[in-house]
Design a protein that fits this description.
The chain has 301 residues and is of the alpha/beta class. It has ten helices and seven strands. The protein has a five-stranded parallel β-sheet with strand order 5-4-1-6-7, sandwiched between helices. A two-stranded antiparallel sheet has the order 2-3. The protein is globular, with a radius of gyration of 21 Å.
């Protein structure tokens, strides 16, 4: 989040909204003398993502969470830097043994981790549709996404202390240039081409599965000792073999103790691999059926 994401990038961002509309008869005009006459307000289509996008933009709690996480991470970064055994890569991605020759780095997802794409979500909601690659690409090419609260201060501090800031994103290859432009315009440090590893990154000897980031983490392992990872999806930290609720839990289980120490997770209620995990990752299902699967997955106890 990038966009994080499930095996198909487009799937990761689907909004899965309900398309029903409350059709009401047209109101007749009330007499001018009617004292209690009120204007008729047309019913808006229901959208599952409305509250999520609204919270992301208007709830001060959203900003406080980001500020808290980045501030806490910065306080712990000095200790991590001094400890030569400290590493935030899962064991399957630590393909190069730790060494003092490796440069220190922090690895961050982009979308909903350091850049705020909620305006795109709002456009989708207002348009009554769902995520699609063309509209998403058009938004990314505008390069106007704001930095998340606390992201600039943290990354600038890390860079000023000799720690490489590396962004790993599932944005498509043709979005590399506007993404880098957006990062810089938002005040986030970008030291060079190696600082950004997008979906089109080729890693010799490693076969990327879908949009999983494991190969790119292994590429980073060759030159860096990763002190911390940041993201809004499980796949930003570790490879998810089976995108089911159980599979996601299994992937993260060995690293629970790293949360808040080496791995820092942000909330993303608007999209992510958590959503298709409850309807078998099947976006061929009609929108209404996907919504029913989500409702059925809810717990009331």
């Amino acid at each position: 989040m990038s966009l994080i994401r499930p095996l198909v990038l487009g799937c990761a961002l689907a909004l899965s909204a309900c398309a029903t509309v409350d059709h009401q008869p047209k109101a007749t005009s009330a007499p001018a003398t009617a004292p209690d006459a009120q204007p008729t307000v047309a019913a808006a289509p229901a959208d599952d993502n409305l509250n999520a996008a609204l919270w992301s933009q208007r709830a001060v709690e959203h900003d406080l969470i980001y500020e808290e996480v980045f501030r806490d991470a910065q306080e712990k970064l000095t200790h991590a830097l001094k400890d030569p055994s400290w590493d935030a890569l899962p064991k399957d991605d630590r393909t190069t043994p730790l060494s003092r020759k490796l440069k220190p780095a922090v690895v961050l997802d982009i979308d909903e981790t350091v850049l705020d794409n909620s305006p795109y979500q709002v456009r989708v909601i207002r348009g009554g549709g769902e995520f699609n690659e063309a509209d998403w690409a058009a938004w990314c090419k505008e390069a106007v996404a704001r930095a998340m609260p606390g992201a600039v201060a943290f990354t600038q501090w890390a860079a000023s202390h000799g720690i490489a800031v590396i962004y790993v994103s599932n944005r498509a290859k043709d979005l590399d240039e506007p993404t880098l432009r957006n990062l810089r315009q938002a005040g986030l440090p970008v030291s060079g081409p190696e600082a950004f590893l997008g979906l089109g990154t080729f890693v010799p000897g490693c076969e990327q599965v879908g949009t999983e980031k494991g190969c790119r983490r292994q590429l980073i392992a060759g030159k860096y000792r990763v002190l911390m990872q940041f993201g809004d999806q499980v796949g930003d930290f570790v490879t998810v073999i089976a995108n089911t609720p159980e599979g996601r839990e299994k992937a993260i289980a060995p690293y629970r103790a790293w949360i808040g120490e080496r791995w820092f997770v942000f909330p993303n209620p608007t999209y992510g691999s958590w959503e298709p995990a409850v309807f078998n990752n099947d976006y061929t299902l009609p929108r209404g059926e996907r919504r029913k699967e989500k409702i059925d997955a809810l717990r009331d106890k």
